[in-house]
Design goal:
4 helices; 2 domains; UDP N-Acetylglucosamine Acyltransferase, domain 1; Rossmann fold; 218 residues
Length: 218
């Protein structure tokens, strides 16, 4: 049986540990083993039920390990997943049994789909996408790698979320809108037009309030 190791020992990591026990594979293919994080003090701060066994940088994956990533920031998610994949890490997907997934949905590697999501017909979820609880992805939505769809998000049909997009809690993106790479649609916002790359938009309707380019260059 494999050891499931969670990248990120913060609140999302603790949440995914709990959810993993409700997903296919638990107890048969793998068992939760611990976390990778560079802050050992999170064991006590976040009441982690399993230990932080190492930092990402220091850990060498073995054939007995499988991984999921519990980082909500798409830029850091890409950074640390890329580092682990280069060392031979194997990632698995977690799909909660209460998620409703229509026909002809394409789900990549390392994808996380939390409870009570609706993934409609011909949706494409690329590698390492996270879809949090109660989110709805309309037909023909395309979500590119490393994107993070926060709880209660909604995308209309034909929406494209390019690589590394973050949609905030209860955000709505109207049909056929494209949110370009590493952009953010703020919580409770309504995106009515395309969002440029490396841009944070917020409001109803959503307007640009910040550039993310400086953070992405770090």
């Amino acid at each position: 049986m494999k050891r499931l190791i969670i990248i990120g020992g913060r609140n999302l990591g603790r949440e995914l540990l709990s959810l993993s026990k409700q997903c296919e594979g638990f107890g048969n293919d793998w068992m939760p083993y611990g976390f990778l994080d560079d802050d050992k003090s999170l064991e006590k701060k976040n009441n982690l039920p399993l230990p932080i066994i190492s930092s990402v940088e220091a850990y060498s994956p073995t054939n007995d390990d499988v991984f999921i990533c519990a980082l909500g920031n798409p830029w850091y998610k890409k950074k640390y997943i890329t580092e682990m994949v280069a060392k031979g890490a194997q990632f698995i997907s977690l799909v909660h049994p209460t998620a409703i997934i229509h026909d002809n949905v394409d789900i990549g590697h390392g994808v996380i789909i939390q409870p009570n999501c609706l993934i409609s017909d011909h949706v494409v979820l690329a590698d390492f996408v996270t879809v949090q609880a109660y989110s709805t992805l309309g037909h023909d939505t395309s979500v590119k790698a490393y994107s993070h769809v926060s709880a209660y998000s909604f995308t209309g049909g034909g929406v494209v979320l390019e690589e590394g997009v973050l949609t905030g809690t209860r955000s709505t993106i109207l049909p056929n809108i494209k949110v370009n790479q590493f952009s953010v649609v703020g919580a409770c916002s309504l995106a009515t037009k395309n969002v440029p790359p490396f841009t944070t938009v917020f409001g109803v309707p959503a307007v640009a309030i910040a550039s993310n380019a400086e953070q992405m260059s770090k």
